[in-house]
Design a protein that fits this description.
206 residues; mainly alpha; minor pseudopilin epsh fold; 52% helix; globular; binds manganese (II) ion
Length: 206
């Protein structure tokens, strides 16, 4: 009997705790001063975690309970989409940094220079997209089905996967991403993020 209960509890646990907070691939102080330890503690340890917990609660008893995260992002809407996309977006965002960023090379650099003329021109347009995004959201570098690059602005939890685009890079422009370090200076935050981008990660997404 105890064994049966134990078995049932194991099943229950496995279906109701589908998603977990991925660990950061660096220490919480590794990205300072671009992103302080305090910002990462809140942004990853509180905000990202809250989206994971919300998603686990929301999918219980729904058809999404057995889907992987990307499938939920592609197929859901409302509160489930908002929390699933925020889990996906933050995981993708936090994976792309390291203490000292490196230069873009290879396919990604070639495609950026072909599209924008120079790497600096691309960064200027990307920063401008982030600075002019009204309210909360995400700026994305994406690749379409023909291999063309685009900069896409998405409000709130928006994710270009829902438009058939392949995300390569994203900047979080929700105030919680920068307010502790930059207060209202979103443009300074966007400009500083380039210092910690690990372009090897972006190339691996190509
Ligand atoms: Mn965020």
């Amino acid at each position: 009997m105890n064994l049966l209960i134990s078995f049932l509890l194991t099943i229950q646990t496995s279906v109701t705790m589908l998603f977990t907070l991925p660990a950061l691939p660096y220490t919480a102080e590794a990205l300072a001063p671009t992103m302080s330890q305090e910002t990462l503690n809140f942004h990853h340890g509180k905000h990202h975690l809250a989206y994971v917990n919300n998603l686990n609660n929301l999918v219980k008893g729904t058809r999404y309970e057995t889907m992987d995260l990307e499938a939920i992002v592609r197929e859901s809407d409302g509160a489930i989409f908002n929390n699933a996309a925020q889990v996906w977006n933050h995981t993708f965002f936090f994976e792309q940094f390291k203490t000292t960023g490196c230069e873009a090379k290879g396919n990604v650099r070639t495609a950026i220079e072909k599209k924008w003329g120079s790497f600096d021109a691309f960064k200027t347009e990307f920063n401008n997209a982030g600075a002019t995004l009204f309210g909360s959201g995400w700026v994305w570098l994406v690749k379409d089905a023909n291999g063309n690059l685009e900069i896409v602005k998405e409000s709130n939890a928006g994710n270009p996967l829902t438009k058939g685009l392949k995300p390569l890079l994203t900047f979080d422009v929700w105030e919680h991403a920068y307010y502790l370090d930059y207060q209202n200076r979103r443009a300074d935050y966007l400009n500083a993020l380039w210092n910690i981008i690990d372009w090897k990660v972006i190339e691996s997404r190509w």
